[in-house]
Amino acid sequence: MDLQILLLLGQDGITNGAIYALLALALVLVFTVTRVIFIPQGEFVAYGALTLASLQTDKVPGTVWLLLGLGIIVALLDGAKLLRERRYAKLPPLLIANIGVPLIAAAGLFAMPPAQLPLALQVLIAMLLVVPLGPMIYRVAFQPLAGASVLVLLIVSVAVHVALIGLGLLFFGAEGSRTPAFTELSFELAGAPLQGQTILVVVASALLIIGLYFFFERTLYGKALRATAMNRTGARLMGIPPALAGKLCFTLAAAIGAFSGILIAPITTIYYDSGFLIGLKGFVGAIIGGLASYPLAALGAILVGLLESYASFYASAFKEVIVFTLIIPVLLWRSLSARHVEEEEE
Amino acid sequence: MCRLPLPALAALLAVAPLLLPEFTITLLNYIGLYAIVAVGLVLLTGVAGLTSFGQAAFVGIGAYTTAWLTTTWGWSPWLTLLVGLALTAMIAFFLGFITLRMGGHYLPLGTIAWGISLYFLFGNLEFLGGHTGISGVPPVTLFGWELKSGRDFYYLIWLVVLLAIAAISNLLDSRVGRSLRALKGGTVMAEAMGVNTPHAKIVAFLIAALLASVSGWLYAHLQRFVNPTPFALTQGIEYLFMAVVGGIGHVWGAVLGAGLITLLKQWLQDWLPQLLGQSGNFEMIVFGIAMVLILQRARDGLWPVILKQLPARHEKRQVATAEILPKRPLAAANSVLLEVHEVSKNFGGLVANNRLSLRVAAGEVMALIGPNGAGKSTLFNCISGVAPATDGEIRFIGERIERMPSRDIARRGMSRTFQHVRLLGQMSVLENVAIGAHLRGTQGVLPAALRLDRAEERGLLAEAARQIERVGLGEHMFDAAGSLALGKQRIVEIARALCSDPCLLLLDEPAAGLRYREKQDLAELLGKLRNEGMGILLVEHDMDFVMGLADRVVVMEFGEKIAEGVPESVQRDPRVLEAYLGGVD
Question: In A, which residues are within 8 Å of B291 by CB distance?
C-alpha cells in the first residue's frame, strides 16, 4: 500500500467515522436520558437522505404521510387526555402542531415542485419533515412505557426499527439514491485527491459536536437533559418532566440522524435499510464508550470508521464481519475492567 | 407451571399428517422449528430476564455445521448434530462470558452484532458456498427409515418440540429452575440465597442457544439445503417477537407465538403487497406495530389470555412428606459466630460505617438500633457480602469473609432477610421459601430436565413447607407471595432464610408492618431459635420488641457505634437518649 492509498482510505475512514461519531453521541444521549437503546437511530439517517433525494427528484416523500399519521395518533392520545382533564385551551395548539403543520407541509409539497428550490431550502424541508418524527415516536411508542425495564424498552426499540424499515421500503422503494454533491471543490493532499464533500462532512460534524457541547453546558434545556441523565427522579423533583426530557432528546437524536443522512447522501448510495448498519456502527462506537462517555464514544466511532475503511481495502468481503466482530474484544475489555456491581432494576 | 393434557395433544399431533394436505404439513413443520427456538427464548427472556436477538445465528451454526460436514466430509447427520451442539455451546459460552457480567443490555447488543457478523461470514466464506449456500444435504435416517418427505420429518420435528417443552417445564419446576426464576428479581436476593448468578445466567443462555442449534440441524435436513438468508438478524428478531406475542413467561406461549406469527406472516405476505401495489416484506410493519402495542397493553402475551378461558385447573395442594434434610452441626453454645472488627464503608466521600466493631455469639439475639440513616442496613450488606466493606475485618466462625461474594458466605451458614422485601411476587410462598434451600440440594440441569431429581426435590419442598408452618403461614403456602400483606411477606423472608439451615440469621426490620399479636408470635419464634443455638442479628425500630427480645444491643448513629450492652444499661445511656430524643440543654 502506498501513501496515496493510505491517505485516501484514511480520508474515507474519517468521513464515515465522523458520521458514526454523531450517531454515537445521539445514542449515548438517548440512552442516558431515557434508558432506551435507540436502535431506530439509523432509520433517521436513511429517512433524512431519502427524503432529500425524493425532494430533488420532484417526488412527494412518503415521510410526509408518516408525519401526518403519527401526528393524528399523538393528537388523539394527548387530545383525549386534555378532554378528560377539561383543559380545552390547550387543544388548538396541540391540533395545529400535530395535524395542521403536517397537512400544510403536504399541501405545500403538492403546490410547489421542490426540485426547483435552492439546495439549502431542500435540506431544511427534509429536516422539517423527518425531525418531528422523533418526538412523535417517543410519545406513541416509548412514553407509555417510561417506567419499564431497559430490556422491554430495547424490545420496543427493535419493534419500532422493524416497522420503520418496512415503512421506508414502502415510501422510497427498494432502489437506492445518491444526491448530488453539495460542493464540487476538490483539493490535493500529498498526491491524494481530497474531496470538498469530505471536508464538509468533517467540518459539519465537528461544528455540530461543538454546538451540542454548548447546548448542554450553556442552555437551560441542555442542563435539564444532563440532570435527567444523571438522576431521573431527582430531575423530576426539580420540575423537569420526564416526558419533556424524552421528547427533547428524541428530537435531538432525530435531528442528528437526519442531518447525518443528508451529509453522507452524496458520498454513498443510501437504500431504505442502509441506516440500520450505519446506526449499528455508531453503536459499536458508543459501546466502546460504555454507553456513557461522550468523548470515548466519538473516538470509538472514528476508530470504527478507520477500521472499516482499511478492512474494505484488504478484505472487502469481510468488511462487516470485521467491524462487528470488533465489538467482541471491546466487550471483553469492558467486562474485565468493569467493577462487579450490577445496577438493580426495580 | 401449567400442564396441558399432553397425551391428548400428542395423539392429535400424531394423526395430523394422515389428514392434512401437504401445504399445511409444511407450515406445521416450520411452526415446530420456530417453536423450538422460541421455547429457548421463553427460558432466557421470560424466566431469566435476559434477551438475545441472535438466536437465528445459533440456528445457522447448527444448520451450517451439519450441511458442511455431511456434504463435504460425508459424516452421519447424528454425529454432526453433536458437533453442531458442541460448537454452539462454545460460542454461546464465550459470548455469555463476556457480556453477562455487565448490565443486562449488553447481551442483546452483543448478540445483535454477532448475528450480523455471522450472517456476513456465512455469505462470504467460499467453502460454505457463499450467498448461494450448500445444497444436497442428505436426509436423516432413523433405524433404516429415511426421513425424506415433509410428512416423515414432521414427526421428528414435533417430537423434538414436545421433548423440549417437557424438559423446560421440568427444569422450571426444580431447584435449578427456581434459581433461574430468582434472577428476574435481581441478583442480590439470589446470591444471598447461595445461587451462583453468573453461572445461572450462562446456563439459561446455553440452553436457549442449544435449542436453537437443534432447530437449525432439523432445518438443514428438512430443506436439504442451506443459505445465509434464514439466519439473518431479522429472523432473530422475529423469534423474539414469537415468544413475546405468545407469552414470554409460558413454554406453550412459544408454540402459540410461533404458530400465530408464521400463519400471520403467510397471510400478510399474500395480502399486503396486493393492497400496497408493491412487493416487499411489509408484514414487518404490522409485526413491529403489533409488538409495540402488545408490550404496552398486554406484556404477558396471549397465552395467559387463553388460560383464563380454560376451566380452572386443580393444582396439587399438598406437599409430599419426606425425610428431614441433614442439618449443619450446631456451633458450641456461646461460641463467637460473627466478629466484625473496625469495619468502614464509604460511598464516595460519604462514610456510612466508621470503624465499627461488634460480636454475635451462638444462642444470642443481638439487636442493632439507631435512627434512620445511621448505617444499619449498610452494615448488614457488608456482613452478608452484598456490598463489601471498604476497610476492616469480618470473621464468620473463624473465617475471614469480608471479600467473599454473598453466595459463599451463605454456604458457610449465614442467611438474611431484606429491609425492602425481595420476593418473587408471582411465585407461590412455597416456591419462594424453597429458594432458601438452594444450597441444600445438588441436582443440576440434566437431572431436573429428566425428572431424576424428584427425591431431592421432595426433600427440599418438604423442608420449605416445614419452615412455612413454623413461622405460622401454613394457610398461605400456595398463595402467590405478592398477594400477601407486607408484614407477612417479611415473615416469608424469614422462612426462606431459615430454609437454608443457617447458624446465624440477619433480620432487617422483621417486625415492621406486623400487628401486635403477630409481633408476639415473631418474638416467640426468634426466642425459640435462640434457644436452639442460633445466633440472630437484628435491625429493628420497635423498641418494645427489641428490648423484650435482645440479649445485647448495639446503638449506632451517623455510622458509628455509640453504645453497646444489655438493654437496661443501653436504655439509660445518655448518648443514646440524646440520639433518640435530642439533647437536654
Answer: 155-156, 159, 162
Q: Confidence class of residue A336 from pLDDT cuts 50, 70 and 90?
A: confident
For residues B150 and B87, membership in a common domain is answered with yes
Among A66, A316, A321, the strongest candidate for a mutation testing the B interface, having the largest count of B CBs within 10 A, is: A321
Q: Which residues pair with B347 in a beta bridge?
A: B350
Residues on chain A touching B188 (C-beta within 8 angstroms): 344
For A345, name the nearest residue in chain B, comparing CA atoms only: B186
Q: What is the ipTM of this complex?
A: 0.88
Q: Judge if B342 and B454 occupy the same domain.
A: no
Within a domain: residue B147?
Answer: yes
B114 and B196 together in one domain: yes
Residue reference for cell 472514528 = A302
Which of B438, B464, B499 represents a domain boundary (last residue)?
A: B499
Asked if A328 lies within 8 A of B106 by C-beta distance, the reply is: no
Which of B295, B299, B390, B404 to mutate: most A Cβ within 10 Å? B295
Minimum Cα–Cα distance from A152: chain B residue: B295
Q: How far apart are CA B583 and CA B560, in angstroms?
A: 18
| Contact between chains at A321 and B102 (C-beta distance less than 8 A) | no
Q: Is residue B53 part of a domain?
A: yes
How many domains does chain B contain in total? 3
- Give the span between the Cα atoms of B305 and B253, in whole angstroms: 10
User: B538 has which bridge partners?
Assistant: B367, B507
Across the interface, whether the CB atoms of A346 and B240 are under 8 A apart is answered: no
Name the minimum distance, in Å, from the CA of B247 to any CA of chain A: 14
Choose the weakest-confidence range: A139-143, B165-169, B348-352, B396-400: B348-352
Strand ranges, E, within B365-469: 365-369, 391-396, 399-400, 414-416
Cα separation, A148 vs B68, in Å, equals: 43
Nearest to B386 by CA among B104, B186, B189, B179: B189
We report the CATH number of the domain holding residue B560 as 3.40.50.300
Residue B314 domain flag: no
Residue B11 is part of which domain span? 6-233
Residue B1, pLDDT score: 41
Does the pLDDT of residue B2 top 60, yes or no? no
Q: Is the pLDDT of residue B35 over 80?
A: yes
Domain closes at, from B499, B522, B541: B499
Same domain, B346 and B474: no
Q: Tens digits of per-residue pLDDT, B313-371?
A: 656 677 777 778 888 887 777 789 999 999 999 888 888 888 999 999 999 999 999 88
> Do B116 and B170 fall into the same domain?
yes
For residues B278 and A167, the answer to whether their CB atoms sit within 8 Å is no
Question: Which amino acid is present at A66?
Answer: L
Query: Is 70 exceeded by the pLDDT of residue A345?
Result: no
